[in-house]
Every structure is written in structure tokens, then in C-alpha cells.
Amino acid sequence: MIAFRKYYVVTGLIVITIFSLLSLENCSQNEKAPADGSEQRRFAGSEACIRCHRDIYEQHLRSFHHVTSAPANGQTLKGDFDSANKFYYNDHLFIAAEKKQGGFYQTAYVNDVPKLSRPFNIVVGSGKRGQTSIYWFQNYLFELPLTYFTETNEWTASPGYSRKADFNRSITSRCLECHSTYFQEITDKDAKADEFSKTNFILGVECEKCHGPAVEHIAFHDQHPGEKIGHAIFNPAKASREQSLDLCRLCHGGRLSKTKPSFSFQPGDRLFDFFRQDTGKPISEMDVHGNQYGMLAASKCFKNSGMTCISCHDGHKNESMQTVQFYVKCETCHNSAAHNTCKLASTVRQDFLRINCINCHMPVEASKAIMVLRKNESIPTSAHMRSHYISVYKDISKRILSEKNSGL
Ligand code: HEC
Ligand code: HEC
Ligand code: HEC
Ligand code: HEC
Ligand code: HEC
Ligand code: HEC
Ligand code: HEC
What we know:
Number of strands: 14
Largest sheet: 6 strands, antiparallel
Oligomer: single chain
Bound molecules: heme C
Order of helices and strands: HHEEEEEEEEEEHEEHHHHHHHEEH
Mean pLDDT: 88
């Protein structure tokens, strides 16, 4: 037991040392040309849309896309900074989330002596399930070792961090490609990790991530105020099924290995011009986290219809807590006119079927990919997500039906 503890302390110290070594290298701060040819890409910013699309803009501010990355501050940070602010890796090493000198920090303490402190600079994740934070060091971004985990309302070890108080995990451009609108990458050829411009980035998944850079669109409509048809802008609802799906799949399609620099893909593009075509895993190996596309695409609904993500989702609204209402979307295809209603329709009341439609056919499952290590636990705890594999789940259905009967 004691031997284990020592091992943990030593690991913590080693990690901190490695960090300091890396800090001495790569001191060049010169900004270089972006790798993805994006100098020509001109973003207007979401505020520029307010003038002509105020309602959508206001909906978007309440969406999870908008807050999925933001500057770290008193408004955006989740988690306790006062009393329940420590996470113990072992008896000798803990990390504390601290507010000091007007800023927010994570500090590693070894035998109660502060050893290393790094700021919260940017939050990643809305906090619906959790929030991980990252910090700048020169042109690099690194992940902080503690993550706020919403299900249990506490600080935990960041996903994938088991026994190491690691301040040295670099953030890749692919992480930012999914959680922000744009980061200018300025990686040096021999750099050990991706480097970013500290001035040229846009946090949040903003309007132009899904519609493409809009400077030209705005200029056109300023010059043609009577024009009722949108010009020089991508609308997923009017694109092909593949184009519409590829946009969502860029971030909701699981792990993809890129063949072009991150941030090259633009709305309307085909995904596999930028990523290696994946071989397709069996459904049992897909995770409910981050791969809504893969799971949906394995469903009969998807295979036998022209379904896209926006058959059920609105591009702008925050639909959280409206789970029950989704049955309306199912009934656009599954209705008595089409003769493909639920097999239970003859034996179970319609209102009961509607209220539980999603719970029976798209149940919530534990993720194997988003798992965090909680205090005093050796096995990580999962976040829970809705399965997009629409199917018949016999056991879950039985349970839901029996709950109904026991309640009567
Ligand atoms: C000067 C006014 C103006 C501004 C500013 C503006 N738009 Fe538009 N936009 C229009 C008009 C007019 C249309 C056509 C009518 C409609 O669909 O609302 C349109 C349509 C659209 C469409 C639908 C296109 C289609 O083919 O259906 C999208 C998407 C869009 N705009 C996105 C944006 C975004 C994103 C911004 C901000 C970055 C923006 N617009 C700023 C005037 C503007
Ligand atoms: C640039 C990456 C990106 C693109 C493109 C994208 N999303 Fe997302 N989406 C995210 C991220 C990241 C989250 C998680 C936000 C959070 O809670 O931090 C998310 C969250 C969501 C949610 C969950 C909201 C909730 O209630 O938890 C839905 C639904 C969703 N996206 C649908 C879509 C659809 C449909 C498309 C295509 C039209 C799309 N997304 C395109 C990155 C993206
Ligand atoms: C996650 C991707 C995503 C983001 C972010 C996003 N949109 Fe959209 N937008 C869509 C999708 C999908 C559609 C088509 C289906 C629909 O209307 O939901 C759409 C449709 C539109 C339309 C045309 C249809 C309509 O409802 O008038 C406009 C205009 C528009 N968006 C503007 C904006 C503006 C302005 C913002 C930012 C404030 C924004 N969008 C942010 C995905 C997105
Ligand atoms: C391929 C795209 C992709 C990459 C890469 C990615 N994420 Fe995510 N992430 C998502 C999507 C989509 C969601 C929300 C839906 C889900 O979990 O299925 C999400 C959810 C999250 C959440 C939980 C948000 C919430 O409150 O629900 C956190 C925290 C997070 N990601 C952090 C990160 C960090 C940090 C990285 C990089 C080190 C990263 N993600 C890499 C797509 C991605
Ligand atoms: C765009 C149309 C469409 C929508 C929307 C849709 N489905 Fe389907 N669904 C289908 C089609 C087509 C099939 C295949 C029917 C067949 O093979 O005979 C199907 C099959 C199914 C099956 C049988 C699956 C299996 O593996 O045997 C279930 C269960 C189902 N849908 C439930 C739902 C639920 C629940 C929703 C809403 C969350 C939904 N569907 C939304 C078109 C749709
Ligand atoms: C047949 C309807 C349907 C389709 C099609 C669909 N979704 Fe969903 N999605 C749902 C329902 C229902 C929920 C649960 C909503 C809730 O509980 O708030 C959901 C939730 C989500 C969430 C939040 C995850 C969670 O656990 O809360 C994300 C992210 C998401 N969808 C993305 C997508 C993407 C990306 C696509 C396209 C690949 C897609 N969805 C297609 C019905 C659908
Ligand atoms: C209590 C759980 C439960 C609820 C609620 C429920 N279903 Fe079902 N559904 C089932 C089960 C179980 C089956 C398979 C029955 C069988 O094969 O005998 C089924 C079968 C189906 C099928 C046919 C699949 C096939 O094999 O052809 C469709 C389509 C379907 N459901 C759609 C829906 C829709 C849409 C809703 C909501 C409006 C809904 N169901 C509500 C449990 C449920």
C-alpha cells in the first residue's frame, strides 16, 4: 500500500518536471502563416448577423453550441472554488481549483506545498455534462488536470487522467475544430505539439461554423436590401443529404483521422476530402459520446429514409429538457396513415407510448469514452448520453411497461 502511494507521488513530481523542461524549449513566439490557407477566409462574427437575423441570434445565444468554448471567468466557470475545491490523487498530492489575484488557477500541492499553478484560460464544454479547461503556454494550449463533472457536481480527474497530476497534455487542433469556430494554426514544422495564434481565434460553435464565412453574404445584402433570397451562404436545409450530414458529422461523427489540416473543411464540403474514410465499426463498439452520426446511420430509420440530423433537430434552438416532445418528429414518418406505428399501439395507450417513445427506442446509455475519476474511487464514472441507435430495446421496454403497471 505504502509502496503504491510513493509511486503516485513520484509520478506527480515527474510529470511536473517534464513540464518545466518543455517550457524551456520552443521559445520562439513568431507567428507564421496558417497551414490551412485560411488567410483568405473572412469571418464577420455572429454579432454581424443581429441586424438581419435577430431571432435566430437570440436563440443561438442559449444553445450549447454557443457556449461550448468561452473565455474562463466568473460567469463561464462551473465548479466550487472555495470549500469543495480539492481533488486528492493520493495522500500526498492534491490539485486545488483556486481563485487568487483576480484570476482562476489549478494548483498542484505535494505534501501541502504548492508546486505548480496554471491559469484557467478557456473553458471547453457547456457544463451540461462537464467542463474541461485549458491554458496558454507560449503558443501552445494545454489541458488542466481537473474537470468539473456535472452529474455529481464535483471536481474530478480529467477524462483519461488516471493517476497523474498532468499539466502537460497538449490540446490538438482537432479538439478545437470540434469545440470552436476557428483557431489559426501556426505550427512550426519541428514543433512537438500544435501551435496557435493567441489573437486570431473565435470561441463557441458560431453561426459561420455551420453557414460558412459570411462577409460576402452581408456585403451582398447591404447592397441589395430588397433581395429576399440569401446569397453566398450555406443553408444545410437546402443542401444535399450528404452535405447536410457531413457538416454535423465533422463534430458528431466520432474519431476521424484527418488528411488535411484542421479547420480546412467548410460547410458544403464532403467530409472524406479532408478525413480518411472510416471502415465502420459494429454498433457494439460505438460510443454514445460524440458519434451520433455513426449510431444513427446504423438504424433502420436512417437506412430506409432520407433522414438527416435536422429531421429531428433545429440548428439553433436549445432543445434540452424537451425529450418528450421529440415523439412528434417520429410521427412524421411513423403514423397510422403510413401503417408503421409502434407494434405496441394495439395494446398500450397512445399517450403512454408518446411520453415514453424516446426512452424505449433511444435509451440513455453510459459512455465509455467520457469517464472521469472521482475522489476516492479507482474505477472511473461514466457520463450518460442518449443513444442514436434507434431500435427495439426489449429489456428496457419491459421495464418501462412494468413501471407503468406498478404505478396503476
Ligand atoms: C444586411 C442583412 C443581412 C445580414 C447582416 C446577414 N444576413 Fe443572412 N440573409 C439576409 C437575407 C435578406 C436573407 C434571405 C432571407 C432569409 O432567408 O432570411 C438571408 C439569408 C440567410 C441564410 C439562409 C440562406 C438560404 O439560402 O436559405 C443564412 C444561413 C444566413 N442568412 C446566414 C447569415 C449569417 C450567419 C449572418 C451573420 C454572419 C448573416 N446571415 C447576416 C440578410 C442578411
Ligand atoms: C464544429 C463542431 C460542431 C458542428 C459542425 C456541429 N456540432 Fe453539434 N455540438 C458540438 C459540440 C462540441 C456540442 C457540445 C456542446 C456542449 O454542451 O458543450 C454539440 C452539441 C449538440 C447538440 C446537443 C445539445 C444538447 O441538448 O446537449 C445537438 C442536438 C447538436 N449538437 C446537433 C448538431 C447538428 C444537428 C449539427 C449539424 C447541423 C451540429 N450539431 C453541428 C459541435 C458541433
Ligand atoms: C450548429 C450549426 C448551426 C449554427 C451554429 C447556426 N446555424 Fe443557422 N442553420 C443551421 C441549420 C441546420 C439550418 C437549417 C435548418 C433549420 O432552420 O434549423 C439553419 C438555418 C438558418 C437560416 C435560414 C432558415 C431560417 O430559419 O430562417 C438562417 C437565416 C440562419 N440559419 C442563420 C444563423 C445565424 C444568424 C446563426 C448564428 C446566430 C446561426 N444560423 C447559427 C445550423 C446552424
Ligand atoms: C470529433 C469532435 C470532438 C473532438 C475532437 C472533441 N470533442 Fe468534446 N465533444 C464533442 C461533442 C459532439 C460533444 C457533445 C456531444 C457528445 O458528448 O456526444 C462533446 C462534449 C464534450 C464535453 C462535455 C460538454 C457537456 O457539458 O456536455 C467536454 C468537457 C469536452 N467535449 C471536451 C473536449 C476536449 C477538452 C477535447 C480535446 C482535448 C474534446 N472535447 C475533443 C466533440 C468533440
Ligand atoms: C424520416 C422518417 C423517419 C423518422 C423521422 C423516424 N423513423 Fe423510425 N423508421 C423509419 C423507416 C423508413 C423505418 C424502417 C421501416 C421498415 O424497415 O419497414 C424505421 C424503423 C423504425 C424502427 C424499427 C427498428 C428496427 O430495428 O426494427 C423503430 C423502433 C423506429 N423506426 C422508431 C422510431 C422513433 C422512436 C423515431 C423518433 C425518435 C423514429 N423512428 C423516427 C423512418 C423514420
Ligand atoms: C429521429 C430523431 C433524431 C435524429 C434524426 C437525430 N437526433 Fe439527436 N437527439 C434526438 C433525441 C430524441 C435526443 C434527446 C434529446 C433530449 O433528451 O434532450 C437527441 C439528442 C442529441 C444530442 C445530445 C445528446 C444527449 O445525450 O443529450 C446530440 C449531440 C445530438 N442529438 C446530435 C445529433 C446529430 C449530430 C444527429 C445527426 C447525425 C442527430 N442528433 C440526429 C433525436 C434525433
Ligand atoms: C414501452 C416502450 C415503448 C414505447 C413507449 C414505444 N415503443 Fe415502439 N416498440 C416497442 C417494442 C418492445 C417494440 C417491438 C414489439 C414487437 O416486436 O412485438 C416496438 C416496435 C416499434 C416499431 C416497429 C418495429 C418493427 O419491428 O417493425 C416502431 C416503428 C415503433 N415501435 C415506433 C415507436 C414510436 C414512434 C413510438 C412513440 C410514438 C414508440 N414506438 C413507443 C416499445 C416501445
